[in-house]
Amino acid sequence: MVRDRKYPRHRGLIVGNYCHDVLLRDDIVVAETLGGAVSFISAVFDGVLVCHNSISKVGWDFAYSTHHEPIVVPDSKTTLFHAHFSSEIDGDGHQDRILKRVCACDPIWPSDLPESRFNFGMAVGVGGEILPQTLEKMLELCETVSVDIQALIRDFDAIDGTVKLVDLKESGFYHLLPQIGFIKASGEETSSLDIEEVRKLCCVVVTNGKHGCTVYWQDEEAQIGPFPTNQVDPTGAGDSFLAGFVAGLVQGLPVPDAALLGNLFGSLAVGQIGVPKFDLRLFQRVKEEVQRRKMQCNSYSEMKAEDSKLMKVPGFEQFHASLSAAKMISTCPVQECQWDLSISPPETVDQPKLFSSPVFEETVQTIDGGKP
Q1: Where does the record locate the signal sequence feature (predicted)?
Q2: Which of 60, 74, 128, 328 has the fewest other C-beta atoms within 10 Å?
Q3: Is 239 a catalytic residue?
Q4: Which of the following is catalytic: 148, 155, 233, 239?
């Protein structure tokens, strides 16, 4: 692996396609929005000023304005997903969602990546656009790479495009695990991997919705609690969490604290439809709290190298409370923020290779199994 530290600090490489999301409730279209993990991640990074490049492909029909220009493929259409919601509510107060890929843009090839060095990378494909050789190239270019497991194990029904999950060992990516910083997976996605095996190779973060998450690393485990919120649209919750989490890490926060920051942005994302709109006052408050917490953690730098990488530095609960207070700042127009899919639509310290995660993960109904 290449480890050249002559590149700008905190510069990241985000790889994954933009897409078009259509939300349907009981087969009736209720919203159409910009989608793709890169759009949710960029919304957070741009606000907290984490410098990054994004590599994303779209088709000739791409109709959105973005801060980070994608690669346009003239003879292809933009990746399109239909998210089918039911009006029925489960025991956790959430609606089931069946996700279908209607069409897919071209994959991202290693040759599409810039010949540069990056402090961190994020492989966040949603429609099967990241190939094993592309991830391998990212691992050469980036100091640490974090991966959303959906980029590795999603497959799609040949007839209607329904999302399926394949076993991680059969995905073509398994041999790269020892080089990956961490893998984030939802509780449902854990059916596709053996946590006890994978945790020996890289850090595994399993999110469990309103119950938070568990971080697994070697023989260590850490439980991180979430931020309660009123869920409106679960799409992009995991992406926003991942952005907040990685932003915390590159700012120098310990793993549990970075997880709390991820929780914050994940909980904010589910309160809106599509890519969330954040209030500038929120970003300013969060940056102040992160800086304050970083200084506090630095005072405990005498912790020995063999101490637990998942240890909660004193003041952890206060940091959680401070982020909870920051969350109270209004982040979007009332009409957009308060609409719920269950009702009628509106009128118009040193952490080599170690990341973590919790929070409100999007609940996607999939078809489990091996290779289709």
Answers
A1: none
A2: 74
A3: yes
A4: 239
